[in-house]
Amino acid sequence: MTGQDGSYLAELLLDRGYTVHGLVRRASTFNTHRIDHLYSDPHHSDTRFFLHHADLSDASRLLELLQTTAPDEVYHLAAQSHVRVSFEEPTFTGDITGMGTARLLEAIRLTGAECRFYQASSSEMFGSSTPPQHEDTPFQPRSPYGAAKLYAHWMTRSYREAYGMFAVNGILFNHESPRRGETFVTRKIARAAARIKAGLQDRVYLGNLDAVRDWGYAPEYVEAIWLMLQQDSPQDYVIATGTASSVRDFARLAFDRVGLDWTRHVHYDQRYERPAEVDALIGDPSKAGRVLGWKARVLAPELAAIMVDAEARALAGQAPERQEWPGEPLPQRREWKG
Ligand code: NDP
Ligand code: GDR
């Protein structure tokens, strides 16, 4: 729950009346800064937010927590999620991002938990397939992360087909926010633009500026995640804006926002290149529009503005803007018999 999407999804679920159990890795430093604002004293009887230590490498812990919490919905967001890092730690990434999903699916099967299951699949699985990519586009991953996600994706489909589980893959394209990890390119650029404007640094080093991505806004994407588990039947969906920008475009948008010329501050460093690059990921979200009624509203220019403004607020010591969740009642769900 401590990641970007986990924190937004927890907010959304609490806002919609759920009781939320989140898994957190034990760390020697605090790793809950994205969810600290959701914490309430567990001694209060009206608390609906609970945290549990767990790790995807620990199958018995997953079994225990499924038994004790008996969830209706399981949102599986945990992963070693950094593509560049997956080249440095390929077997660890395979173990957590790939096998971790198998452990969780097995824990659900073995406990007989009657829950719906969401798997955080990724556009990175499309790899070198020609854009625009949709649900039937062939997968051609180009990284250990993409390959691990593809294993998890097919395991989720296998459990749906073999055991009749309500198991769904959301194939999400890049989605960003002020809560994005600092080493992903949009956050790195937004942070640098604000800090350079404030006189705290004068340059930022990036790798491949030509890569094209379909960048959307994370709070909107967790709404799509939630919608997928409220449908009558389990299906896989591409979630994307359908628009394309290069890293160069995003740098220009971010630096424009603070009135700076990006070409004067962005420098190249080969160390941020990957051994194999995915040139262009641009999603075709038609199915999500048709079936879920979901459509991205925030596109790259507004996203860059949101992220740069958030960095500037933080530098000025101001609190982050509160995320608003348009209230939607829980739909009447039909029972899923598998
Ligand atoms: P983050 O990297 O922000 O969050 C990943 C989460 O997984 C963190 O809470 C992290 O904990 C946790 N985690 C990592 N390893 C383990 C482990 N061994 N056991 C338990 N928990 C672990 O990712 P995002 O929020 O951006 O993405 C959510 C999911 O969606 C990920 O699976 C990602 O791969 C996938 N995805 C993301 C996209 C995006 O554009 N953001 C697009 C498509 C898919 P900690 O905080 O302690 O590190
Ligand atoms: P990505 O996101 O690999 O698409 O994975 P990232 O922001 O890391 O890279 C996007 C593109 O930018 C290029 N790039 C740089 N990237 C980083 N991180 N740092 C740099 O300095 C830099 N310079 C150029 C990259 O080469 C790449 O082409 C994200 C993750 O959230 C995954 O978990 C998720 O599955 C996919 O998005 C969809």
UniProtKB/TrEMBL annotation:
Region Disordered, residue ranges: 317-338
Domain NAD(P)-binding: 2-307
Alphabetized CDD domains for the sequence: GDP_MD_SDR_e
InterPro entries: GDP_Man_deHydtase, NAD(P)-bd_dom, NAD(P)-bd_dom_sf, Sc_DH/Rdtase_CS
Domain of life: Bacteria
MF (Gene Ontology): GDP-mannose 4,6-dehydratase activity; NADP+ binding
Cofactor(s) it depends on: NADP(+)
Key words, A-Z: Lyase, NADP
Stretches with biased composition (Basic and acidic residues): 321-338
Keyword Membrane: no
GO BP terms in the entry: 'de novo' GDP-L-fucose biosynthetic process
Enzyme Commission number(s) of this protein: 4.2.1.47
Record's catalysed reaction(s): GDP-alpha-D-mannose = GDP-4-dehydro-alpha-D-rhamnose + H2O
Keyword match NAD: no
General function of this protein: Catalyzes the conversion of GDP-D-mannose to GDP-4-dehydro-6-deoxy-D-mannose.
Sequence similarity: Belongs to the NAD(P)-dependent epimerase/dehydratase family. GDP-mannose 4,6-dehydratase subfamily.
PANTHER family, per database record: GDP-MANNOSE 4,6 DEHYDRATASE (PTHR43715:SF1), GDP-MANNOSE 4,6-DEHYDRATASE (PTHR43715)
Protein name: GDP-mannose 4,6-dehydratase
